[in-house]
Write a structure and sequence with these properties.
The structure is a single chain. This protein has 262 residues and is α+β, with helices and mostly antiparallel strands. Helix content is 26%, strand content 27%. The two termini are 20 Å apart.
Length: 262
Amino acid sequence: MTERVQKILSQWGIASRRQAEQMILEGRVRLNGAIAELGQKADPDLDQVEVDGQVIYPQDRPEFLYLLLNKPVGVVTTCHDPQDRRTVLELLPEDLRQGQGLHPIGRLDVESTGALLLTNDGALTHYLTHPRHHIAKTYDVEVVGQLSSSALRQWREGVMLDDRKTLPATVNILNRNSSGTLLRVILREGRNRQIRRIAEQLGYPVVRLHRIAIGDVLLQPPSKSTLRPGQYRSLEKFEIRLLKQGMTLPERLPAQMKEQRR
């Protein structure tokens, strides 16, 4: 699978994405013997990538890592933040922050909390974030006010956002009280701040948004101890299989090749 050269260098732990871009601009990176250009793509299993005259071999790539993090409020889902806010990578120990190529899969906005996957497996990232795959994500959402039957029906059937209707969603009421409604929402698409924007549009602003599952991977499975905000754990092998079960052979191939080398 082809990736941008700066992304390959980042995933292989050579440099951060930002540092890799600078290295390319400085002419320190070559692709198949020619100086690489920013944005150029390569297949690390077929193309030769050099950094400062040294060839980078696929077998030198760090082992694949798959982490599940309970993202706390106030932390941004990115590897580097221009505004110098705390990032999800800063919640990890130093040996995982550097040289591993870890990056978050998808996003949770700064006010939202809960399940966030981090990996250095680019094929899995591509699969889980590609719109055509419709990976389900489950949220507990508290909104202001008593959600009406008509608003609930609209949300389930889809509403117009950015001149395009959202996909049908699973929306169920878990609890009501005098100030608001607690919902369980399952989305199969990931537009920017989608739940917050829909709720606002329907007249029920979000008070709290907490993601509890990505696909079949649960933030708090019954057999595991509670992950407190800011804590993480490695995924079990069966959880990785669950995430990859819809991938086609070409999408799986880079990971399989890596496993065969071990």
